[in-house]
Write a structure and sequence with these properties.
This protein is of the alpha+beta class. Helices cover about 25% and strands about 25% of the residues. The protein folds into four domains: about 160 residues, Zinc/RING finger domain, C3HC4 (zinc finger) (Herpes Virus-1, 2-Layer Sandwich); about 100 residues; about 190 residues, no CATH class; about 280 residues, TolB, C-terminal domain (Neuraminidase, 6 Propeller), CATH 2.120.10.30. It has a four-stranded antiparallel sheet. Helix 10 runs antiparallel to helix 11. InterPro entries: 6-blade_b-propeller_TolB-like, TRIM45/56/19-like, Znf-RING_euk, Znf_B-box, Znf_RING, Znf_RING/FYVE/PHD, Znf_RING_CS.
Length: about 800
């Protein structure tokens, strides 16, 4: 009660609370909306009329302040009367009056009603009126008011505002005030309500007694609302930051594209003409096909209209014989039209023209054969007949007129219409030297496509594939990555509720400061970090050695591999969230067996020999299994007390990422005892927002954690002290993490890279920058020669979602 009371004892009320946000003037006849915002009745009426004038039968409007949907209090009433139906905000009116009477020029209320302006000197609490000296004498002489408590205006200014705030009037009984509270109905009532409507209620108290009980709840509710306000601000700031990053990256890519054009301008002129001619040819050929379909459909429209006219005229003016002949002929023609329409509908395909720059542009040397390549994408249009058509009407043996070639490209991102959920994806590659020997292959797959483009309705776009910046370019990116925005659905970052969180500005290296994430607790940078690491040995690029398909014939859908491990005998274990399975593959990457679990597994680690530990987040436990030749035997269960995600094991200890309050990394023994919880520093600042994956060195001195929300990498000692925390601009959304000796490898899900660090947090560079898309989990082989990478993202093509890739570290 004390803190709440202290806030209202201060008579200075914020102007914004007593000001209409529409007219920015003090409230006049304020009315309240369900979202708790108040506006002048006249302002609200104008807003309602302006927002509903385009609606045919308006039934709702949006709040002018928070844009929340507000239903009409009575849809049968015209919009200009809706504001009258919302309840007046008596509290704001009383508060305005309380502030007003504390001014030096408060006028006498009785005199004001006589149009006389006299300064008041007294205040009657019972009547709620200011009185001048003359009216004070009259007030004291009246029988009904002679015992009223009068205070001077000077004394009144020192009292809390609530001492002068009057109770709201009862909406049901004129002349009575709301002074009682019915706990049975959770309703504030007047004395008449108590005696009439609530006479049988057992728990009716005065509002003063009821309010006394509410103060504790009010304090906790206020704190919760403040946290929700901060949470909203964090989300908004995060989006503003993302918008700035998007703008920066867009400008950078735009500059990169134009600089490439400027640097090799002379050569581009020649090749540009060539490829534009090819583009013109592709467009003309496809346009011709579209025109043929349009011409056919126009003919069918004419035929059907003529048939309709024939039936109508024969029935209206013809003989019985004419009717029979006309209907018989029209039936035959209708069947023919239906067959043609069904066949056309089946063969409808949209052509997408994509453009990717030729990789030889990177070198800018003689021998550049082509500016790039044109690829076309065909997708079945999900257009259904307007009525039920017999299945036999559709032709199932129609031939494709185009040469179909499925292009298996690991770094390709296609832009499709958002509504094409299930379609056949065909890539038609037009190259000068392969015009006469194109391969005919069909590859069907289901893929959800998302497009970030301003011209979705055209379903046609030119997409430029990024090339490594030229040596003389001032904006070298250092890796091949798509310049065009990848087709990814808008990712809503599930920022964790901040009830246990604190925020402070981010500290990043000078070169990264411009693109640091939104406000988060400060980063602890490694002592040796330098914005210009010229003296570091850049690791050599790992090479793709092989890949294998993790999806088996038993799987009904595409897989989602969030966890992987290589056990001591070389076998590979995969955690498949989609099918709730753990799978085992031999050293030749052949599927050996699997086990369906009780919940979706997230991560897995080897705990010695053929034993593994699997995290089950929804069940808040770790399950231990022995991996046999073709199946798994459960040997133990360990309860974690919180949703558990990434897991690591060393020296007979588990390190488990837990999304608890606060988020933490728990150190547990193999028999399930909780040895230590790492969550906060000595000052009470949280180490994590959402610890995702974890790795430990062999002696468990260092624990490395990636954070899903902070998008950072942390190093914590076994004693729970943070050594460093970094974010790296070329490592976007760090996910999987692995340690081998003094080397730390981190997967950048959104940068499509795997980056190498040392245990001191120094970033050595990319070891994988090509051949992977959205890397999720990484595992280093026990011999240190290979690294395994899983991939997952909703927009990945099917073959990539199910693909597990093995890279050779080239004696890093």
């Amino acid at each position: 009660m004390s803190s709440i009371a202290a806030e209202v004892i201060d008579p200075d009320v914020a102007d914004t609370f007593l000001t209409c946000s529409v007219c920015e003037e003090p409230f006049k006849n304020p009315v309240g909306l369900p979202c708790l915002h108040s506006f002048c009745k006249e302002c609200l009426t104008k807003h309602i009329l302006s927002t509903t004038k385009a609606q045919k039968n308006p039934k709702a409007f949006t709040c002018p302040k928070c844009k929340r949907h507000v239903d009409s209090p009575d849809p049968h009433q015209p919009p200009h009367s809706w504001a009258d139906l919302f309840p007046p905000n008596h509290f704001v009116l009383s508060l305005m009056e309380g502030v007003k009477i504390r001014s030096d020029s408060q006028k006498c209320d009785p005199c004001s009603r006589r149009n006389e302006k006299v300064i008041a000197i007294r205040w009657c609490k019972e009547c709620g009126e200011a009185l001048c000296q003359q009216c004070e004498g009259f007030h004291r002489s009246m029988k009904y008011s002679q015992h009223h408590h009068l205070v001077s205006m000077e004394e009144l200014k020192t009292q809390p505002i609530k001492n002068t705030v009057s109770r709201p009037p009862c909406p049901d009984h004129e002349g009575t005030l709301l002074g009682f509270f019915c706990e049975d109905h959770n309703q504030v009532v007047c004395s008449s309500c108590v005696t009439i409507d609530h006479r049988k209620c057992k728990h009716v108290t005065t509002t003063a007694e009821a309010a006394e009980k509410q103060y504790v709840d009010a304090e906790s509710l206020s704190e919760k609302l403040k946290l929700q306000r901060d949470w909203s601000r964090r989300i908004a700031e995060n989006r503003r930051h993302s918008a700035r990053v998007l703008e920066d990256s867009t400008n950078q890519i735009r500059h990169q594209i134009t600089s490439i054009r400027q640097q090799i301008n002379d050569l581009l002129v020649q090749k540009e003409v060539k490829i534009l001619e090819e583009l013109k040819t592709v467009h003309a050929d496809e346009k011709e096909q579209y025109d043929k379909v349009i011409e056919t459909c126009d003919g069918l429209v004419s035929t059907t209209e003529n048939a309709i006219a024939l039936i109508q005229n024969s029935m209206r003016h013809g003989s019985d014989t004419d009717v029979i002949l006309a209907i018989d002929n029209v039936k035959n023609e209708s069947q023919s039209c239906e067959s043609k329409l069904a066949d056309l509908t089946t063969r409808l395909k949209d052509l997408f023209i994509n453009f990717s720059a030729d990789s030889t542009l990177q070198a800018v040397v003689n021998g550049l054969d082509n500016l790039g390549r044109l690829t076309t994408t065909q997708a079945n249009v999900n257009l259904t007949a307007p009525y039920n058509v017999e299945p036999m009407t559709y032709r199932s043996d129609h031939t494709h007129r185009d040469h179909i070639h499925h292009e298996h490209t690991h770094r390709e991102h296609d832009h499709h219409d958002r509504t094409h959920r299930d379609h056949i994806h065909h890539e038609h590659t037009h190259r000068e030297h392969d015009h006469h020997d194109r391969t005919h292959r069909d590859h069907s797959h289901h893929e959800t496509r998302h497009t970030h483009t301003h011209r979705d309705d055209k379903r046609r776009e030119i997409e430029i594939e990024s090339v490594r910046s030229l040596p003389l370019s001032p904006i070298s990116t250092g890796r091949k990555s798509p310049v065009a925005m990848p087709p990814a659905a808008t990712q809503r970052k599930a920022l964790t509720p901040p009830y246990e969180l604190t925020s402070s500005p981010v500290v990043t290296p000078r070169k990264l400061r411009k693109r640091s994430p939104s406000p988060l607790p400060p980063l602890m940078l490694p002592k040796s970090i330098s914005p210009f690491p010229y003296n570091r040995i850049i690791p050599r690029q790992a090479t793709l050695e092989t890949f294998f398909k993790g999806r088996t014939s038993n799987d009904r859908e595409n897989c989602c591999f969030t966890g992987a491990e290589i056990i001591q005998d070389g076998r590979i274990i995969l955690c498949d969230q989609t099918h709730r399975k753990v799978k085992v593959f031999n050293h030749n990457y052949q599927w050996c067996g699997e086990k369906v679990l009780s919940a979706k597994p997230y991560d897995v680690c080897c705990i010695g020999g053929s034993d593994i530990a699997v995290t089950l987040p929804t069940e808040k436990k770790i399950q231990l299994y022995t991996v046999r030749d073709s199946d798994f035997i459960c040997i133990a269960n360990i309860q974690t007390g919180a949703k558990c995600w990434g897991i690591a094991y060393a020296q007979k200890k588990f390190a488990v990422c837990c999304f608890s309050a606060p988020p933490s990394v728990k150190i547990m023994s193999r028999d399930g005892r909780e040895l230590k919880t790492i969550a906060r520093d000595m000052a009470g600042n949280d180490y994590f927002n959402f610890p995702d994956y974890v790795a430990m060195d062999k002696n468990t001195r260092n624990i490395f954690v990636t954070d899903r929300y902070r998008k950072s990498i942390s190093c914590i000692t076994a004693l729970g002290e943070k050594r460093w925390e970094i974010r790296y601009d070329n490592l976007k959304v760090p996910r999987g993490i692995a340690v081998y000796g003094s080397k730390v490898f981190v997967a950048g899900c959104r940068s499509h890279t795997v980056v190498q660090l040392n245990i001191d947090g120094d970033i050595l560079g990319d070891i994988i920058s090509e051949g992977i898309s959205y890397p999720t989990k990484i595992v280093v082989h026990p011999n240190g020669e290979n690294i395994l990478v899983t991939q997952h993202q909703a927009t990945l093509i099917d073959v990539e979602k199910n693909m597990v890739k093995i890279f050779s570290l080239n004696n890093q």
